[in-house]
Design a protein that fits this description.
The chain is of the alpha+beta class. Helices cover about 55% and strands about 15% of the residues. It has helices at about 1-20, 30-35, 35-55, 75-90, 115, 140-155, 165-180, 190-200; strands at about 25-30, 60, 95-100, 105-110, 120, 125. α6 (about 140-155) runs parallel beside α8.
Length: about 200
């Protein structure tokens, strides 16, 4: 009788530590909603990209162990693992580690890693371009000013003194990378400015 009670006690203690370490805002519990593998990947990618913009250092993703899955293998867990490797190549995830048999701690990359990551996926050719408006002219003036500041800061960090020559291209590059993270969600322009401010702060 003592052994099961001990396991329950340890599980409760671990959950309490996780709540203190991550909190509800930095925890994604896929096990509760029992999504399909496709839905889990879609939800996880959107959530991780938002966490990156929100400057989260590390987050917790709970997939479950797959005890009820065919063969005892969680399809959701395997799909999330594959997604984490993909997002690492794309500059969203810095790394991940198994927290328990049914969860992962994910370390997020800085926003600046979005345009520092390789342009190609291994063996998959060039990644498709992110959704962007026809030109930077479609952006609000405040957004363009922030984007210009970010591009200048990036060029200066590369040791380029004549930033004007490369400024337009650098603005487009940064905008494309951030737009892929923001997507077409509501309040897109405000979220875009938040992401640019986050990137600027990371250059300090």
């Amino acid at each position: 009788m003592g052994r099961p009670d001990r396991r329950v006690e340890l599980k409760g203690l671990r959950q309490a530590f996780d709540e203190v370490r991550f909190g509800a805002q930095r925890t994604l519990n896929l096990r509760e909603s029992l999504p399909t593998a496709h839905a889990a990947v879609t939800r996880t990618e959107a959530w991780l990209r938002q966490q990156q913009v929100d400057r989260a250092d590390e987050v917790l993703i709970i997939t479950g162990r797959g005890n009820q899955s065919e063969g005892g293998i969680s399809v959701v867990r395997q799909s999330v693992i594959a997604l984490l490797h993909t997002l690492k190549r794309r500059g969203v995830v810095a790394g991940h580690e198994e927290h328990t048999q049914g969860s992962f701690v994910v370390m997020l990359a800085p926003v600046s890693a979005l345009w520092e990551s390789p342009a190609r996926n291994r063996g998959r050719g060039v990644a498709p371009p992110p959704p962007t408006p026809p030109s930077l002219d479609d952006l609000d003036q405040d957004t363009k000013i922030l984007l210009r500041n970010l591009a200048e800061r990036a060029l200066e960090g590369l040791g380029i003194k004549d930033t004007a020559t490369f400024l337009q291209g650098e603005m487009l590059k940064h905008f494309g990378a951030i737009a892929a993270t923001i997507g077409d969600a509501p309040n897109r322009e405000a979220r875009l400015r938040d992401a640019i401010r986050t990137a600027l702060d990371q250059y300090e």
